[in-house]
Amino acid sequence: MGLEAINFFFCSKELIKTIVESNNQIVKSNEKQYVYKKDDVFWIDLEIQNDLCLSIRITLCNPKEAVLNALDNLLVFLFSFEGGVLNNLNTKELFKHYNKSARERIFNAYENRNKVFEEIYGDYTAAVSSEEFYRIQRANRGIEDDK
């Protein structure tokens, strides 16, 4: 949970794997990891933590308007299932409903976190995962991956 991303934890009363796999815009990358993405427009990492919980991570270099629209759509989808609760791991805010007020607070938290990101990394925009962002940063500094 570094400075490159904003992180959420979503829990439901329904099986999270069933929820995630019912959305045809979410692509499975391995047993527990999924990606909600659209080409070079946005990228949101999803990882199943247990039967009822999912982590959501958005690298802050994603194109802001596109990723916020995607996050809004994702949260509308997730909260359409029974018992949804979202925890913003960065602000420690808990959301039991996704409505206009929650959306505004989540988007404001994103904006505040994005300002910190820009102070550190500048105006860098790319629809990538956190791992890819750091790979690019290391390559730009001449650091080779261990892989």
Largest sheet: 7 strands, antiparallel
**What gross morphology would you assign?**
globular
Q: Given the structure, what is the number of helices?
A: 4
Question: Taking strands numbered 1, 2, ... along the chain, how are they ordered across the largest sheet?
Answer: 2-3-4-5-1-6-7
Strand fraction: 25-35%
Unreliable runs: none
Helical amount among residues, as a percent range? 25-40%
Q: Which whole number gives the mean pLDDT?
A: 93
SSE string, helices as H and strands as E? EHEEEEHEEHH
The strand count comes to 7
Instruction: For the record, give the distance between the C-alpha atoms at the N and C termini, rounded to a whole number.
Output: 21 Å
Structural class by secondary-structure content: alpha+beta
Summarize the structure.
This protein is of the alpha+beta class and 147 residues long. The chain is built from 4 helices and 7 strands.
What this model shows, in words?
- The chain has 147 residues and is of the alpha+beta class.
- It contains 4 helices and 7 strands; from the N terminus they run βαββββαββαα.
- It has helices at residues 16-21, 64-78, 100-121, 130-140; strands at 5-11, 26-28, 33-38, 42-50, 53-59, 85-88, 94-95.
- A 7-stranded antiparallel beta sheet has the order 2-3-4-5-1-6-7.
- A hairpin with a 3-residue loop joins strand 3 (33-38) and strand 4.
- The longest helix is centred in the last third of the chain and has 22 residues, at 100-121.
